[in-house]
Amino acid sequence: MAVVGPSGCGKSTLLRIISGLERATSGSVLIDGSVVDSLAAYQRNVGMVFQNYALYPHMTVFANLAFGLQAQRVPHADIRRRVAEVADLLELSGMLDKRPGTLSGGQRQRVALGRALVRNPRCFLMDEPLSNLDALLRDRMRVELRTLHERVRIPTVYVTHDQSEAMTLADRVIVMRDGELIQAGRPQDVYEHPLTVFVAQFLGSPPMSVVQVRLSQHHGGWAVVPFSSDAAAQDACRLPAEAAARLLPLSGPEGQLWLGIRPEDIIIGDPVAHGLDLTAVCEMVEHLGNRVQVHMRWDSQRLVALTQGNPSWPRDAVLHATLPWHAVSWFDHLGRRVPRADDQGVSLGLRNGEA
Amino acid sequence: MISSRAAFLRSFTRAMHGPRSIGATLREALLGYGLVMPSALIFLVFYYAPAAFLAYISFFHWNLFVNGNQFVGLRNFEILANQPLFWRSLFNTAYYVVVLVPTTTLLALAFALLLREMPNLRSGGLSRALIFLPHVTPVVATSIIWVWIFNPNFGLANAILGFLHLPQLNWLQSVTWALPSVMIYTLWHSVGLYTVLFLAGLASIPKNVLEAASVDGGHGWFAFRRVVWPMLGPVTFFVIVLVSVNTIQTFSQIYTLTGGPSSLAGGPAFATTTDSLLIYQTAFLYQHFSLASAMSLVLFVLTLALTLIQKLLADRIVFYR
Questions:
Q1: Using CA atoms, how far apart are residues A181 and A9, in angstroms rounded to an integer?
Q2: Distance between CA A298 and CA A225 in Å, rounded?
Q3: How far is CA A346 from CA A104, A343, A351, B275, B312, in A?
Q4: Radius of gyration over every alpha carbon of chain A, rounded to an integer in angstroms
Q5: Can you tell me the distance from the alpha carbon of A113 to that of A106, in angstroms, rounded to the nearest whole number?
Q6: A72 CB within 8 Å of a chain B CB
Q7: Residue B319 burial by Cβ neighbours in a 10 Å radius (0-12, 13-18, 19+)
Q8: How far apart are CA A16 and CA B208, in angstroms?
């Protein structure tokens, strides 16, 4: 399970409360179904990996790994066996006599993991474990972490501000903001069905484009107009009747709503049926090798689209973009998700008392 | 504008990295020596020169008021070796150091650990101040107060013993208890300084490492012995060396507590005559300057040896980050 959120939202505090390093002002911590509130950190048998590893600098790698077992007065022979196993698993066998100061970032990372792993804890707590590594190593360790997790299957709470880590590593994702849990669920569900504008704009790289629009009467139906614009509604922006019926009661006093669209869902060029067609002004085209990121302006609001190929639109070129209705996420004027037909059956966490 | 900035950057880079003329190097060197000169001179005139002179006269029969100093070789050291009082003073010094180094270090560490646990900021700060306060008082002034505290008839020390139903002591007037009395005073006066050093050492241990130890299941004595204590190694070593050097050289409190300018100092019956006190008395009471110099040289060599031994031990035991 991964916990994501912007810095200062309480992710680390959550971990520290679970580990027993900090006390919760209200509520309870349950591990394996038993309340552990009255237990100190050293009694809870959780394994924690700190952001800066927090290895014991004066001990060898072996002693670092053995510390927790020695604290539990495990017999020497067992300690040696457990440490050897874990060192083997994490490819640390060759460096058991070294001090942490002589190790590289990735090796220290593995020692920190091993130290948590060796005691066979009831759960793993990881506080941004990859954030001190360089990009290349981070990608490799991410894969290794996932592999490790699949081998040992110890419940893990993984705190990160990097949403891509959360998406790739976790079975479940929790999005936090200002100390509150905003959404919990499977990564793909949270990605596709964000509960709020905040979640929509936090997950994904680039994140979902969210623009403020208003509904405007048009030929007896309703059409979507950029909120800031006075322009008359156009045919192409006509809203399907059932969507209009759903959205109207939820729009703000001036008919405002939030429209969210994932960059990969925007179609530029050839219009498709059942979509919102709009004309946008090209601001910048970024070639990222395997894909192209197009920054556009629709009225005064920004949209980002991902396409393939080798487009070479100049700045200020007028682009025709289509936002397929099925890919659009609607949010009411307060930023809360307007449920879509396919939201049914998807666990969005909060209401089920999950998390 | 741009070109002048580029020119400046070029010249700056050259100045930083490029080959420099001998003149510039010389100028820099002269400036450096010039800046060091004032303090170097003070050290030279008031510290190194007298020390060298001391070493020099310890091989002479030397008198402040008489001309015709005579080279006597190792005669002064020979006299010392045959002088029971000198051996007694070395024994007293050793006794004093051997007791005070561990007690001061352990007490300072205990105070530091206690103070760190003080949850309340205000009471914690107040306690720190109270523990450090004795160290900023003048030794001579507070020694005189402690003479009263150690007074066998109406002193505070015996009052406390009486309150605890313990036998009364003669403190500074007892051959057995005189030097321990001085130790108690020294402990009171100096422990605050070392407590502060240990507090700084404790503060330098990353909080994360302690938390990791706690999550790892280590707590109490185990965590202290395996994590806190090793990581305090450098500070502990520093404190031990400092206490050793300071106690070897202790003079003021012994002098004041045991009799001051009178020839009684160091008593009763030479029970508190340490090396530094004997040096003072030999030189300034009995005018045997060359003998006192020889003693100083012996004390210097002993101090140096002790520090070197400690250093060698520390290099093997202490972990430096």
A1: 10
A2: 10
A3: 43, 6, 11, 86, 68
A4: 25
A5: 11
A6: yes
A7: middle
A8: 11
Among B130, B131, B137, residue whose Cα is nearest residue B110? B131
> What is the C-alpha to C-alpha distance for residues B202 and A174, in angstroms, rounded to an integer?
37
Closest CA to A54 of B321, B227, B211, B233: B211
Residues in chain A: 355
pLDDT digits (tens, 9 = 90+) for A46-61: 888 888 888 888 888 8
Using a CB-CB distance cutoff of 8 angstroms, which residues of chain A are in contact with residue B208?
50, 52, 54
Residue for token pair 């394996």: A32
Q: Which two tokens stand for residue B175?
A: 């051959």
Fold of B76-317: MetI-like fold (1.10.3720)
CA separation for the pair A247, A241 (Å, rounded): 10
Give backbone dihedrals phi and psi of B115, rounded to 5 degrees, phi first: -65, -35
> Can you tell me which residue has the tokens 């019926």?
A245
Q: Residue A109: list chain B partners with CB under 8 A.
A: none
Q: What is the SS3 assignment for B63? A: coil
Long-range residue pairs from B76-84, CB within 8 A, at least 24 positions apart, any chain: B76/B290, B76/B291, B76/B293, B76/B294, B77/B294, B77/B298, B79/B291, B79/B294, B80/B291, B80/B294, B80/B295, B80/B298
Task: Assess contact for B115 and B107: CB atoms under 8 A.
Answer: no
Looking up tokens 């996932």 gives A146
Whole-angstrom distance, CA of residue A20 vs CA of residue A308: 49
ipTM value: 0.73
Quote the CA–CA distance of B199 and B213 in Å, as a whole number. 20
Write down the domain spans for chain B. Answer: 2-57, 76-317
The 3-state DSSP class for residue A354 equals: coil
Q: Which helix (H) or strand (E) holds B126?
A: helix B121-132
Amino acid occupying residue A305:
A
Q: Which of B208, B213, B219 minimises the CB distance to A40?
A: B219
Rg of chain B over all Cα atoms, to the nearest angstrom: 26
* Residues 221-250 in B contacting A (C-alpha not used; CB under 8 Å): 222-223, 226-227, 230-231, 233
pLDDT tens for residues A270-289?
766 677 888 888 888 888 88
Q: pLDDT tens digits, residue range B38-70?
A: 999 999 999 999 999 888 888 888 776 666 678
